């Protein structure tokens, strides 16, 4: 967030993928500075999506609420492929939509760090994401998940009460 938002877009722009000082390798943005700039630009909301953690969530929540900016909590997570032919991992963005989403994101990250660390990275298993997707908005920034398949898998999980 180095420049100012164009005047015609004031109040309409919201950062939805942003790493902070809590993504030590991927970002150095300080939460207090980010929130102050978002407030100065009249941005109605701001999201943080640190890599595989929610360490900045409380500081971010307090800062945004104090400045009148709506906080959107999330994380960029490493997820394993749901497809046998693509046995790799990719990063996706998970944004919290409600309290259940926050609890599910906490559970996904906790499971990844305690049950599935690969090459020093916590990896969320696809099955966990299908199980714990309620209250989460999922954004695939690298076209890792085929839209028809991910919608089908996530939709089926939701209809089955996952």
Polypeptide structure, described:
The protein is globular and about 45 Å long. With 162 residues, the chain is an alpha/beta fold. Strand 1, helix 2 and strand 2 form a beta-alpha-beta unit. Helix 1 runs parallel beside helix 2 (57-67). 35% of the residues lie in helices and 22% in strands. 29% of the residues are buried. Mean pLDDT is 81; it is low at 148-162. Strands 1, 2, 3, 4, 5 and 6 form a six-stranded mixed sheet that branches.
SSE topology:
Blueprint lengths: L30 H10 L4 E7 L5 H11 L2 E11 L8 E8 L2 H17 L1 E2 L2 E4 L1 H6 L4 E4 L7 H13 L3
Parallel strand pairs: 1-2, 2-5
Antiparallel strand pairs: 2-3, 3-6, 4-5
Feature tags:
single chain; 162 residues; alpha/beta; six-stranded mixed β-sheet; 5 helices; globular; disordered C terminus
Give a summary of the structure in a few sentences.
The chain has five helices and six strands; from the N terminus they run H-E-H-E-E-H-E-E-H-E-H. With 162 residues, it is α/β, with parallel strands linked by helices.
Number of strands: 6
SSE sequence, one letter per element: HEHEEHEEHEH
The 3D shape can be described as: globular
Largest sheet: 6 strands, mixed
Summarize the amount of helix as a percent range.
Answer: 25-40%
Structural class: alpha/beta
Uncertain spans, ≥5 residues at pLDDT below 50? 148-162
Task: Work out the radius of gyration.
Answer: 16 Å
Distance between the termini: 37 Å
User: Averaged pLDDT, please?
Assistant: 81
Strand content: 15-25%
Give the number of helices: 5
């Amino acid at each position: 967030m180095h420049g100012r938002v164009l005047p015609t877009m004031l109040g309409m722009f919201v950062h939805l993928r942003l790493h902070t000082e809590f993504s030590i390798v991927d970002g150095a943005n300080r939460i207090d500075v980010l929130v102050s700039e978002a407030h100065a630009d009249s941005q109605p909301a701001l999201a943080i999506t640190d890599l595989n953690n929610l360490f900045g969530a409380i500081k971010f929540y307090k800062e945004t609420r104090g400045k009148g900016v709506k906080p959107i909590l999330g994380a960029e997570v490493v997820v394993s492929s749901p497809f046998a032919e693509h046995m790799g991992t990719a990063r996706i963005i998970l944004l919290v939509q409600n309290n259940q989403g926050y609890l599910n994101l906490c559970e996904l990250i906790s499971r990844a760090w305690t049950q599935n660390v690969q090459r020093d990275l916590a990896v969320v298993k696809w099955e966990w994401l299908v199980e714990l997707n309620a209250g989460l908005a999922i954004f695939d920034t690298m076209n890792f998940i085929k839209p028809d398949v991910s919608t089908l898998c996530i939709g089926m999980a939701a209809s089955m009460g996952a």
